[in-house]
Design brief:
The complex is a heterotrimer of chains A (220), B (84) and C (114). The radius of gyration of chain A is 21 Å and the shape is elongated. The longest helix of chain A is centred in the last third of the chain and has 36 residues. Chain A is mainly α. Chain B has 84 residues and is mainly α. Chain B has one domain. Chain B is built from three helices and no strands. Chain B starts with a helix and ends with a helix. Chain C is mostly helical and 114 residues long. Chain C has one domain: Helix Hairpins. The chains are: A mainly alpha (220), B mainly alpha (84), C mainly alpha (114). At the A-C interface, helix 1, helix 2, helix 3, helix 5 and helix 8 of A face helix 1, helix 2 and helix 3 of C.
Amino acid sequence: MAGLPHFGHYRGPYGVVLDRLAVPERHVENVVNATTYDFRGFDTMGEEFILFSAVTGVVLLLRGGKPRRHREEIVRSDLVRVIGGVGPALVVVLGLWLVAFGFVTPGGGFQGGVALAGATTVLFVTVGYTAWSRFGDERILDPIESLGAGGYVVVGLAALASGLPFLANILGFGTPGSIRSGGSADLLNWAAGIEVAAANVILVAEFVEEYIAPKVRARR
Amino acid sequence: MIAPLQAAVLVLVAAGAPAVVLSRDPLRMAIVNGLYGFVLVLLFVTLGAPDVALSMLVVSSVAYPVVLLIAIARSRAARDEMDD
Amino acid sequence: MSILPYAVAVWIFVVGIYGVVTSRNLIHLAVCLTVVQSSTYVLLLAIGYVRGAGPPIFDAVPVGTRTVDPVVQALSLTDIVVSVTVLALILALALDVHRHSGTIDPDEIAEMHG
């Protein structure tokens, strides 16, 4: 059927090659993330900038010049506030763990980044606007997002500066199965994690500030 | 040949897509879309793709619903203002 | 061979396009687009699947074990995360349309502008 392989009988050569190279050559056990941040690192840089420009578009559309006024609490139940405070803390740990061990177990910067952003979003629902808006401040978030997107490029340029191809691994490889096994691909992994987390928090922050906060204030 | 488990999950996915599309009320759609995302997670697990499954899990359980619910809240609030 | 996975991918694509074409609400339309997009994940992962093989992670199995294809997985997982921000951008545009024309029904918007 249109040149598709029979289901379960994929014969493409690249996967086999990467499977054989990832551990001996790159010391990375999770071949999916070895592909994402090492073998196809340039491609992922493109993906990051799709993310970056989409967020820039949302910010341009939604961020008005108006100053943001003082915030008031919505949630008054202590139980909800306690659970809502502990839950996101656990999710933050989960997110960091997903990013950190991306080269060993399933996970990585993209998944962990969304989990980190999700944790701060839950704060808005359960603990309230005041607690959340500390994370939703664009004066902090914008530089963090730029750090994620720019950091990726800087790691690539650092390789160029040291006489290697763009995005080549400059830190050397760690022990397979260890937290530092990716070398400088691990820095790319963290850069992607920071970028994705910041991008998602900015998105929610813009939507909340633009659409929800005025309604909450108007109701008082 | 295809494993029975994979076939079963594929049928669920095939049923999930029209369930999302045919939910004409956006709020209901946001919820059905979350369930559809979860069925996709199951499919990715049975296809040996835990990384993709994890990606779909965090996105469909947190990111999609939040963005959608805020957009729906806004479009409803504006409609109420017009009715007043 | 089994064509079920490919048939399901095509089915999701067609269903999603049907939703886009018949949609009366821009928020609904944006979600239908993500359904169309999900058909690509099903197609890619179905192509890369190898019967009886495990995921391409070598923390428990020796190097050289046949696994499912890692390349299609790397493609899908980044795309899934990026799709959220693209959805948000579409929704922001839809709400901007809402602010200017007072409706999110694509047909009514077309009528209002002749």
